[in-house]
Specification:
alpha+beta; 8% strand
Length: 336
């Protein structure tokens, strides 16, 4: 144990002696490195960038009518409920989609803003690299979503961050409206078909009513009473024959009509809900923090660049000087 400590002690002393021996060169190298890093990280060479962040919770509801117009006895999604982990992940995927990116690039004219030539053959590739470099989204542990934007203009960074949230809301609403429109067309077609079926049944029941068949049960009781009081006659016999011929059909039509009307009422509710989903507008995001122009730059961090440059130069210089010293010692050994 003592041997190891002694060995370590002498190795540390050797390093210390090595630094003292080459101190002048190391000081010059580190000083030059510090000066160069200060110059390179200056605003004249590296343009400072400002960070703006917008934070929001995604809505968990996809249907206005389902959230607002359903039976109170049935538990539904609360339209004011904050987002869940699954919903947050879905919103992150929308934010990273090419469709939303395209809208952001177009709305804020980012190709021109990032000084990319319009006739550049690689403009889409360069635009994508600049977008990924300056704009990022992430899901927080609390199921909220952060939109971070870096830009040379603090106001532009804030505008883009807030704009992305607004565009996300409109894109989500647009997708929901398209789905609601499809559902509305399907329900409307089914509603019209059901109305035609009911009208056909009513027309047939009107024909049977013209023949004196309209309520089999009540009519049967009435005929039985008439026969008991007045006996059989030609008129009663005719009514009996009509009931015998069309009574079963009349009862079947009546039962079918009740069922069809009930189904039509359900379709009417769905039709009203589908119209609300198409025409209504409910925000898909709960904004916790609007992006505002930053007062201090976020990039570059000059002191980290200077410190990193000095440390890197110091380590590299030590390695080079160590090789120089080793080379000299071996050369002297060969001469002797």
């Amino acid at each position: 144990m003592n041997k190891k400590k002694k060995q370590y002690y002498f190795e540390l002393i050797d390093v210390f002696h090595f630094v003292i021996k080459w101190r002048r060169k190391l000081i010059i190298i580190c000083s030059v490195s510090a000066i160069l890093s200060i110059i390179i990280s200056s605003p004249y060479i590296i343009k400072p960038k400002y960070l703006s962040t917008a934070v929001f919770y995604p809505s968990t509801n996809n249907s206005i009518s389902s959230a607002l117009l359903t039976d109170s006895r049935v538990k539904q999604k609360d339209p004011l409920e904050f987002g869940e982990q699954v919903a947050a992940q879905q919103y992150v995927q929308i934010l990273e989609s090419d469709y939303l990116r395209g809208k952001v690039i177009k709305n804020f004219n980012l190709i021109e803003h990032y000084r990319i030539e319009a006739d550049d053959k690689e403009k889409n590739y360069k635009m994508g690299k600049m977008y990924d470099k300056n704009i990022s989204v992430k899901k927080t542990p609390y199921a909220s979503i952060e939109v971070n934007v870096l830009d040379e203009s603090p106001q532009k960074a804030a505008d883009v961050a807030n704009g992305i949230v607004s565009i996300l809301d409109s894109v989500k609403t647009e997708v929901q409206r398209k789905m609601a429109m499809q559902a509305l067309h399907i329900i409307e077609a089914e509603y019209k078909r059901k109305e035609e079926e009911i009208n056909t049944i009513k027309a047939r029941m009107s024909e049977l009513g013209a023949k004196g068949v309209y309520n089999v049960e009540e009519q049967s009781k009435a005929i039985t009473e008439l026969i008991g009081k007045n006996g059989m006659n030609e008129n009663i016999r005719k009514q009996q024959n009509n009931l015998a011929m069309f009574g079963a059909e009349s009862q079947s039509l009546y039962s079918t009509l009740e069922l069809q009307v009930e189904q039509l009422n359900e379709l009417k509710k769905k039709l009203d809900q589908a119209k609300i989903d198409v025409e209504g507008n409910l925000s898909n995001v709960f904004i916790l923090q609007n992006a505002s122009p930053a007062e201090r730059k976020s990039y570059p961090i000059r002191y980290l660049i200077v410190i990193g440059s000095i440390l890197g130069s110091f380590v590299l210089a030590c390695i080079v000087l160590l090789f120089v010293e080793k080379f000299r010692s071996e050369k002297d050994a060969l001469k002797s």
